[in-house]
Amino acid sequence: MEYSINEVARMSGISTRTLRYYDEIGLLRPLKVRSNGYRIYGPNEINTLQQILFYRELELPLDDIRKVLVDDAFNREEALRSHYEKLLQKRHQIDLLLENLKQSLEEEKGRIRMKDKDKFQGFKEKKLKENEEKYGKEIREKYGDDMVEKSNAKYMGSSKEQHDRAEVLSSEILEKLKTLTGTVPADSEEGKALAELHKEWLMLYWPVYDVEAHQGLGDMYLEDERFKAFYDAAVEGAAAYLRDCIYAYTKK
């Protein structure tokens, strides 16, 4: 069956303008374009549009979607299964937030009393999920599943005060990196004090402190481009400087 651009727009819920844009950037070409300029779409294009909308729902950038779709190894069945699993995870997260909101409304009406830490469970689980997607593979390979699960459990059980302290420490570490990087030696008292702050921040998440693990995290900050980019965004060379401070501190 073939569809006009207006029919596809009505069927999919996206605008004809968006469909034209997808054509312009090579993301979704029509099956054919008639002599009058009307775009016509067939079953394959409809399937591709469905994939695009799935990926957009998962917040994947258009450039990345295009790369996936043109990959010779692309498998529609595997992609659908992956979408299904990710949407289940997303639904679980939404369910947690809805339950949190429901309980907050009940508390507002005076019907229940929530523990302060319970008010943030949905948000904390979302943060863990994001971290797992970004860094889970590398962290688990470096420290093992047991260490990661214990760390996650400690984070989920943390109080609002501990969470706030972690945010303060994170900001303070970045500010000190801006001030010290390139101007003060890593093995100075100020450099070691920075590493001490970093240790305090870590212990809000880690179940136990380990010197080698601390050093390994410093190495990862420099070796992993994502961590390096995060710290170097504060000031060029910050990731290497923080790693050096950690080594100086742990060898004292």
UniProtKB/TrEMBL annotation:
- Determine the domain of life of the protein's source: Bacteria
Domain (HTH merR-type): give its ranges.
Answer: 1-71
User: What Pfam families does the record point to?
Assistant: MerR_1, TipAS
Q: InterPro entries, per this entry?
A: DNA-bd_dom_put_sf (IPR009061), MerR-type_HTH_dom (IPR000551), MerR_fam (IPR047057), TipA-like_antibiotic-bd (IPR036244), TipAS_dom (IPR012925)
SUPFAM superfamilies from the UniProt entry: Antibiotic binding domain of TipA-like multidrug resistance regulators, Putative DNA-binding domain
User: Which GO-annotated molecular functions does the record name?
Assistant: DNA binding; DNA-binding transcription factor activity
Keywords assigned by UniProt?
Answer: Activator, Coiled coil, DNA-binding, Transcription, Transcription regulation
Q: What protein is this chain from?
A: DNA-binding transcriptional regulator, MerR family
Q: Give the originating organism.
A: Proteiniclasticum ruminis
